[in-house]
Each structure stands twice: as C-alpha cells, then as structure tokens.
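Hi W.,

Here's what went into the run:
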Amino acid sequence: MSKYAPKLSELKKEFDEKPSVLKGDYSAQEWWDRPVEFRDGNWCFPGKQEVLADLGFANPRKWAATDEDWQLPADWQKTISDGLQSRLKKYRSLKLFLDACVRCGACADKCHFFLGTGDPKNMPVLRAELLRSVYRNDFPLVEKILKGFSGSRKLTKAVIKEWHMYFNQCTECRRCSVFCPFGIDTAEITMLVRELLNLIGVNNNWILAPVSNCNRTGNHLGIEPHTFVQNIMSLAEDIEDHTGVNVDPTFNRKGAEVLFITPSGDVFGDPGVYTMMGYLLLFKHIGLDYTISTYASEGGNFGMFTSNDMMKKLNAKMYHEAKRLGVKWILGGECGHMWRVVHQYMNTMNGPADFLEVPVSPITGTRFSNAAATKMVHIAEFTADLIHHKKLKLDPKRNDHLRTTFHDSCNVARGMGMFEEPRSILRNVCNSFHEMPEDTIREKTFCCGSGSGLNAEEYMDIRMRGGFPRANAVKQVKDRHKVNSLVTICAIDRASLPPLMNYWNPGVSVYGLHELVGNALVMQGEKKRTTDLRENPMAGFEDGGDDDE
Amino acid sequence: MGTQYVMKRGWTEFLEANKKAMLEQWLDCALALFPEKMGYSTPIAMVFSGALEKILSSLGKSENDCKEALDDVTRILAVQNFPPSKALSIFLEPKLILRDIMMKTTVADTLMQEAFNSRLDALTLEAFDSYMRHREKIYQLKVEEGSRRMYMALRRAEA
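Here's what came out:
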C-alpha cells in the first residue's frame, strides 16, 4: 500500500469529526429523510390565482410554501407519475440523463448554490437524485424488482416540498454539465421537474406573472404598445440631450431589413435602459435599416422555466412578427436565457424560418452562416464584426472612468459558446479591462445566482448565497486592479448583479456591453460630450478637456 | 490594567507559537457550521481563512484593526440558513481553543487568558453589529431593486 495513503485511524477520526448526512443526528436515516424547512428568504411567492387562471394553469389557489398543507389536487400523485412517464417517452434526453449518471461526483462542488450554502442537496448529482429516486421506484423493471437496493423511494408530499425547495435552487446555468463526463444537462432535469410541479400548481409568481404578461401583451412587465413606444422615444430624447444626435427609431415598420428584438428589461429597467441607448446610437451610427416590434417586444422567455409548450408559444412571436413585417433577418439584443431558447430550441420548435434569409451584415457583407438555421444574430457577433472591419468610429478614452471586468452570461457562454466576441468589443471600447480568475469565466463562468426566474425580492437571501462565488471572483479583480465596473451581456444580470455587487462588493457598478459601446461611439454631428449615458462625468472630458478624436 | 496592555504582554510570542494550530481549529469550527462541512478550497473557506487570521492577529492590537475582516465573515454568515445565535457562535470558539492549547502546553497565563476572553466578548458584540448591518442591507437591496425595475414608470410619474 502506498505510504501516502491515509491511515485507518485518520480516516475514522475524520469521519467522526466531520459532520455529514450519513451520521450524526441523521445516523439512522437516509439522506432524503432530512426535512426541508421553508422560512422567510428561502421561498418565492407562489403564482397568483388570477395569473394561473389567465394561463389556464393547474390548481389556482391561495397558498404559501410555509403552509403545512399545500392544497395539492386530489389526484396529484397520478398527475406527476403520468406526467413523468409521458415526458420520458417524449424526451429521449431525459431518460438518458436519468439512467446514465454513475454518481461520480465530478459535478458536486461546481454548483454555485452548493458553494454558497454547503447544502448537500445542492450538489447537482444529489439534486437530480431527488427525481431519480422517484423514477427508479416506478419505472425500470429491474429496479422495481430490486426495490430497496436501488435507492428508490415513493412519491410523497414531502418529496414535492423537497423538489420545490431544491429545483428552485438551480438557475439552469449548466456549469455542472461542463464537468460531467457524460454531459448530463442538469438544467434540463430542473426544467422538467419545474414543468411537473406546474402540473399540480406548485409554482413561483415571479416566473408566472411575466409569462402571463408576455402571453397577453408580448413582454414581461405587461407594457402595452403605446407605452413601449413612449419609453423608447423618451430614451431617444435623452440621447439627443446628451449627444445632440437624433437616433429616430421606427416601430412595426414593414419592409425594414432587420427586426431588432431585445429583453424588455432594456426598455424599462435601470441599468438596462442605458444599454438600449447604446443599441440606438450604434444603429444610427451605421445607418442600419431596422425596426422594433411592439408585439415581439420581449427577447426573454420565462416559458422556459414553466413548460416546453409555454416556451414554444412565447417564442413563436419572433418568427410571426418577422414574417408579418417582411424583414430579411432578426438581430437579437443582450440576453442570457433568450439565447439558449433561440440557439438551441427555436429552429426545431417554431422553424424552419424559410421566409427569412441567412443573415448578412449590410455594412460589412459578412454572412453569419452560424445563424443559417435560426436566421437570428447575436448583437455581440454583429458589433464585433463591425469593429473588426473598422466600421465604427470609437473613442475608448470616453470610458476611462470605468475599470472593467467581464461576466460571461451562462447561457451565452455555455449555451452558444460565445466567449471572444464580447471581449473583442470591450477591448475596443475601453482602455481598462481585467479578467476574473480563469476558473470563473468563459465556459466555467459562475452564475449571477438569480437566473431562471429566481430574481424575486423575497428570495434575496438565497440569491446572495448563490451569487457569492461570482461576487468573490469580482472581489479579486477589484482588490488587485481597482475594477469598478462589471460588464455583462444579459438582462437578468443587469437586474440581479447590482444588488449582488452592492452586498458583496460595494463600489462596483453593473454595465451592459453596448452601454460602453454607446459611450465610446463618436457620432456624426454630435455635440461636445462631458458625461456618459448615465450622466456621470467622463474622466478627462470635463469642460475645457480635450474631446478631439 | 487595560486589556490591550495585558494582551501585548506575552501574547505576541504565544500567538507566534500557536497561531497555526489555533487557526486550523477555528477555521474547522467555522466551516462545520454549514449543513455539509465546507471544503478548504471553496470560496467561503478562502474568505474565512484570510479573515480569521486577520482577526486573530489583531487581537493584541488596537480595536479597529479587524473591522474589514469581521465584515467579510459576517457578510457570509448573515445570508445563511442558520439563526444568528448559531452564526455568531464562531466568535466564542477561540476561548475553548485557547484553553485547550494552554492545557496542553505549559503556558498558563491566567491574566492573558482573561484578557483574551474579554477581547473576544467585545469582538462578538462588534460582530453582532456588523451582522445586523448586513441584514439591514438585504432589506435595503429589496427596496432599491423594486425602484430600479420600475425605473421608466417612476421617471414618468415624477416628470
């Protein structure tokens, strides 16, 4: 035996001293016997009755996760069991993911929720086991016979509570999948369990209210077309005040070359609106023939967090509107999960979009063959291509008041493999850019902790725990390089990272990438700039400063 | 005789000799607060490890030396799923650790031990203040987030 192997006495000592689900107060119990406890800060408000009624979703009622009785429908067990069975037939991937896992544990310490809470049920392997244990009780014949050996358990109300607790402590970020030797997509397991829970009315209002709004008016906040237009025109007026340039956006214009769709957070929320101003400046700068739709007025798709059918329905408006307006292709704004839906599901869900053309940049002539199927291009690809062909007049000095780092949004990084384009843009629009540690960026990026519809205010404690690994990485560049700006390309990041930074790293502000592009663009006919789009003074451009390119 | 004076007398030498052992035990107690003991290479363990060392080193010095380190620890504790009483118990642990070490070694400086304990009591109360500041911050974040989300609506309402 190796001289380096631990001695038995050492192992025993470690086992005795280290708390574990396997012993201590739980010595006579299985891991699943540990009860879940809902208390303020660790559960989201459930879907409102009227919201569920609007959507035709199951079991509308007044309830809370802290209630003893969740008022499940009488036949809830059959609903879940039948629901699982039908989905196992429909999605081969699900069956594969449930059968293939060998519990190697490679994923265990990769989850930001496990790293932030230390709760073993937040290890992706164990979280998935919450479903697998039920699956094994009811499905594969061999394991039915071997009951008791296979780690199977019956579906009880306590299991439903456990699912609700832990499948809402997964942001579907897929960091664990990067490390899984089988490539098991834990996000799809979470998506599926949430879909099953929705069948019996176990849900989250912060997800369902935007779904209902989107279903009715086309965007998450339920903004109606006239208000949507007013908001963007109000931002256009701000741009004119700051820069002297009239950006003149158009809405629902038939025959435009490009339809632009972005998350509605960019139209109504702070700091998203500054990113919107960046887009508008960019399009004016290059003279893009584009239009914005008040019907497809949301890039995000919270349907993804409820059910496959709802995701498909909400996504359909993108192609509907592209067809109605007769555009050639679609340009998409900075968003996270929107791009997982667009890149991985849209073509098979609602395509083929054979009424559109393979996107070609009208400015550079670049053909985006990577988007040949979906006909939809990510704005970071589009802008990086413009910069590469030197089609933008940029003054990066205008962002000298910002010392930046870049947060890879999970779905753009791991969902569509985009790492270099946003970095290329960032290097061209600002002079100070420092990367966070290597194991926290690109495909190993840490989630903001609030993705997949968990951005609810009442969930702040859990969000702060889950976001800690990301915040900790930002702290390292803040301490080392005096970074004060966290740049990102996701609307949920723009909403959720400000409180995360305010809590863990006060003094670090959150920016959209195209806000920095907007700051740096030297527009034709502009007036002298002294402030950025937020009206913060730009370093070196104070009155009397040098503003010449 | 002031606490600081007693702490200075002999403390530096004692800490020099026993810091590693004290820190290891203290860190283990802190990491064991979590449902599954946190691994040493996790971000939380890294922050704890650095901060607890600063706190321990500062015990013989002026009282404000470790404010930032204290904040780093309580910022993590304030959003965890265990009650404040359990969270702040980690600041009482060093008393037992010190006692054990003194029992094992020949050093038995009662005055120093008393001074150390009273400094730790003060530190625990400071930690309580810091913990509460972080809880207040959480509520403040909820309010601010609501306003940011409705930014354009509020702007129009104010215009």
